[in-house]
Amino acid sequence: MSRDLGAILALMQAEFLDELPERLALMEAAVLALEAGTADAFNETYRLVHNLKGAGGSFGVPIISTICHQFETFLSQKAEAFGPSESTVALAYVDLLRRTLTASNREGAGLAALEQALETMRARQVGRRFSVLVVEASPSMQRVYQELLGQQAGLHLTLLASGLEALARLLHESYDLIVASRELPDLNAVALTAALRESSRSNQDKPVIIVTSNAKPVPAHLRVRARLKRDPRLAQALLEQIEALRT
C-alpha cells in the first residue's frame, strides 16, 4: 500500500515538473506586463508566484516553495514602484525557478548552488540589515515583534506562525538570529532548535532565542543563546540580546 502511495506521489510530482515550464513562461510574461504598467499585472504576477509556492510544497519540491516565498516578499516590497530594475530582479527569480527543472539542481551540490544563489539575492535586497526569523503563532505577539523589531529597530524581519514552515525555510535561507516561541502548535522552539543543530545547513550554529511562558529548562546541548520569559520585560531583554550580537 505504501509503495502504491509512493508511486502515486512520484507520478504527481513528475506531472507538476512537466507543467512547470508553462507556469514559468506565464510568470515571465506577467513580470514583463508589470514592468510595462499593464492593469492588474501585479495581482496576476503575485497570484502565479503564490500558487507555485503552494504547489512546490504539495508536490515535494521545497526549494521551489522557498524561492517563491522570497519572490513574494520582493513583490510585496515593490508593489508601489515597479520599474526596469525591479523587473530584472523578478526575472532573476524566474530564472532560479527554471534551474529547478534540472534534477541535479534539486539535490546535492546542485541544490547547494541554487540555495547560495538565492541567499546572494536575498543579501543584496536586505543589504547590511540584521536579519531575524521570528516563529510565533499568536497574532497579537506577531504585531508586537513587527513593531519592535521591524519598525523600531529597523531589522530585516521574517515572521512565521509554524515551526515546520520555519524549519523548511532555515534549511534554505540564512538568518542572523532565530527567535522562536516554545508554545507552537506543531514544532515547538526546542524541537526546531534540535533539528537545526542536527542539520548541515548554514543556520546550524546560528543563535536561537526561545521565548516561553513557563520555567521549564532547555537542554544545554542545544546551545540556546537565551531563554526569555513572555512578560512585560521581554521587549527590552530581546533588544539587549540583539544589540550584544551586533557588537
From TrEMBL:
InterPro entries, sorted: Bact_Chemotaxis_CheA (IPR051315), CheY-like_superfamily (IPR011006), HPT_dom_sf (IPR036641), Sig_transdc_His_kin_Hpt_dom (IPR008207), Sig_transdc_resp-reg_receiver (IPR001789)
Domain Response regulatory: 131-245
Tagged with keyword Endoplasmic reticulum: no
Source organism superkingdom: Bacteria
GO BP annotations listed: phosphorelay signal transduction system
Post-translational modification Phosphohistidine, affected residues: H50
Family annotation (PROSITE patterns): HPT, RESPONSE_REGULATORY
Positions of the HPt domain: 5-114
Keywords: Phosphoprotein, Two-component regulatory system
Any one Gene Ontology molecular-function term assigned to this protein's record: protein kinase activity
Protein name (database record): CheY-like chemotaxis protein
Organism: Inhella inkyongensis
